[in-house]
Amino acid sequence: MNILVTLGPSYEPIDQVRRITNHSTGALGTELAHSLLEAGHHVTSLCGSTALFKPQTPVPNQEFTTNESLLHLLLQTAATTKIDAFFHVAALGDYRVHDIHDAHGQPLSHQEKIPSRLGDLSLRLKPAIKILPQLRALFPTALIVGWKYECEGSRDDVIEKGKSQVAECQTDAVVLNGKAWGEGFGLYHKEGSLISCEDAPALCHNLQHLLK
Predict the structure, then answer these.
(1) Which of 64, 93, 94, 119 has its CA 20 to 30 A from that of 128?
(2) CB of 165 within 8 A of CB of 148?
(3) What is the pLDDT of residues 45-99, one digit of tens each?
(4) Given phi > 0 = left and psi -120 to 50 = alpha, else beta, which region is 194?
(5) How do beta strands 185-189 and 194-197 pair?
(6) What pTM does this model have?
């Protein structure tokens, strides 16, 4: 099968040298890419440029920075390559910088380095572009698996949010994890099954099983 795996963090620039990002390292996506390769699939990774872990040769890597840059790569891929399965492991930012003002309310350009001597700054954020809801239109016949990472609420809350994501984004399955889920991972399939995976290798095994 021809498989895409996204991994690592995106970032959104504040100015020329500062960024908004998250703690994703790319480790899980890298482990999944390597396990899929070992199972005999053709795997390509779309990797956040600041990820600490990245798949090694022979897995081809294409790097992205912002959510929009990832979407650009996906549009190119959809136009040229038939994708059989898509694992969207990347941790993308929910917000980007809309505008910046100094302590006196004067607007600042985020196209330049903002001097630290200006003191307090006010940043107004707006939602960043969402990738997952666009995947079904881009890859209509592919198996698509999203992720749902939650820090608050109960395990049941995470499951309900995962179910909603599957329905709204027309994905085939969702991986559930984060503090609200607890140790390990959950794997919810659109047909209603829910599998608990104790660790990353177990998750990779069950994700591979979806391909059958």
Answers:
(1) 119
(2) yes
(3) 999 999 999 999 899 999 999 999 999 999 999 999 999 999 999 999 999 999 9
(4) beta
(5) antiparallel
(6) 0.95
